[in-house]
Each structure stands twice: as C-alpha cells, then as structure tokens.
Write a structure and sequence with these properties.
The complex is a heterodimer. By secondary structure, chain A is α+β, with helices and mostly antiparallel strands. Helices cover about 40% and strands about 25% of the residues of chain A. Chain A contains 3 helices and 3 strands; from the N terminus they run αββααβ. The termini of chain A are far apart. In chain B, α2 (about 60-75) packs across α4. Chain B starts with a strand and ends in a 16-residue tail after the last strand. By secondary structure, chain B is an alpha+beta fold. Chain B has helices at about 10-20, 60-75, 100-105, 110-120, 140-160, 170-180; strands spanning about 1-10, 30-35, 45-55, 80-85, 90-95, 130-135, 165, 185-190, 200-205. Classes of the chains: A alpha+beta, B alpha+beta. The interface of A and B includes residues 3, 13, 55, 59 and 60 of A.
Chain lengths: ~80, ~220
Amino acid sequence: MKEKEFLLYIIKALVDEPDEVEINVVEGEKSTIFELKVAQADIGKVIGKSGRIAKAIRTILNAAIARSGKRISLDILG
Amino acid sequence: MVIMEYEGRTERDAIKKASEDLGIESDKLKIEVISEKTKFFSFGNPVKIRVFLDDIEEEPSTRAESFLNGLFNTIGVDISMEIEEETNKLYVEIISDSAGLIIGKRGKTLEALQLLTNIVVNKNEKNWKKVVLDIENYRDRREHTLQELAYKIAAKVKKTQKSQLLEPMNPFERRVIHMALQNDPVVATKSEGNGNLKKVRVYLKRKSNHKRPAPAASGD
C-alpha cells in the first residue's frame, strides 16, 4: 500500500531510530486508520509542540489519500 | 559517499593539500592515487589523488532535495526542483503537474510539507536553516490575494463603521494583512487568539488616536 510507504518514509525521516518505526493499517469501509509506533524517545519528534508535527503529517497524508475519497486517522501509540 | 580530487607535485604534496582543505588528518583519509608520476623527469605532470569521504555532512540543499524526491516518489507524483541557497534560507521551487494537490486548500498542504522539510533539513544541526517551499509562484499569488482582501475589508470597515474579524491565518499571512493596512489613516489591525493560527481584526482607529501613536498590535 503506497500510502503506508509514504507515511513510513516521512516518519523515518523525522525520528532518530528509524528501525523502531512500525505502522499498522486498519482498513475500514469509509476510513483508514494508521496506527503508528515509534521509539519512546522519538514520540515527541512525531507529535511536536502542541501537536504541530502530527497535524502536518495528517494534512499531508490526507492529501496523498484524497483521490480515494476516504477519511484517514493517524493514531500515535505511546 | 563523496569523492574529491586533489593534485600535487608529488603524492605527499597532494595528500597534504587534501588534508588541509578538508580539515582531516592525512592518515585518516581514504586515498587512491589515479595518476602517478611515470618518468623521473616529468615535472610537468602533477600527481592526482582521489579522496573518499563517507561520513561527510550532507549539504542542507541536498537533504531537502532527497527528502522531497523520496517523499513524492513513494506516492508516484512526479516533481522536479530548483533550489536557491542563502545564508540562513533555502528556497525550494517545486515544479509538478500536481501543483494543486501539493498546495492544498488555502495552501494547507504546502505549509505542512514546508514544516516537515524544515525539521528534516535541520535535524541535528546547530544552525537553523529556514526552508521556504514554493510552487507555481503560489507565495506571490497568495500574497497578492491577501493584499486585495485587506483593502476590501478595510473599505467595508470604513463603510459599516464596524470592525471585521478575518479567518485564521498563519504568521506569514497575517503579516501581509498588517503590512497592507499599516499606513491606512482610518483603520488599524491586530491579531486575536492563541497559537500559530490567529485571526486578524480590522477596526476603526479612534479619532483621538490620530495624534498619538497607535497601540502596537499584539501577537506579532
């Protein structure tokens, strides 16, 4: 799934421990849920100050998936 | 991996040059001699060496370019880039058929992409280099649109004698509005709200304020 690759690529570029990045995709009828796991020390790097980075990632992911007409949700698991 | 070539009168000479230029001690350099002095009397032919550097720091422009290339590659969007580097800034102009998709509604996607590129480029760097992304002159066009909006709203405020609150905007966009109306004798602007996205209010200056300097706009 190319959206998963896309997300994986962005997250790996942001974190210090790219090998620890894991993404689970839960595909529903109308929405796709991306469950993201990163190293404990990297959680702040993907969320950012008041969630700025997480928000930017969601925005870009939404744009990447827009053509399919689906909604996405990105859950960062701590 | 970066490969650099150096020349010297002798091999030792070339290595010394490389060492000085790169700031790395000569015994730590990985070197290959590519043109040796063949004859004893061939003083005209310098010795050429190649130096292999694997852990050299990538330039910010290279990092920005490879991050964006890789990113668009994963979703199969074709882009090319033109990068201009200044002391503290990197201008990246993206060229693509999918410009609309990359810009997004009111530039939201482009802003998000710019934020992430900034973080990736400046990761583990001491000196922050601001990355500005642009596509199809979007920044200029957006600035122009915002200026037009500012004049229109100012006219409305003057006509209705009531202040107007604009939609939430990022610092760059708010600045355009403030700048457009800063010399207007009748209306003033200020930012309201918290966080990155604030709203600009355009309001009537009080007559008594004409003689005094207007209070500074908060937030920006």
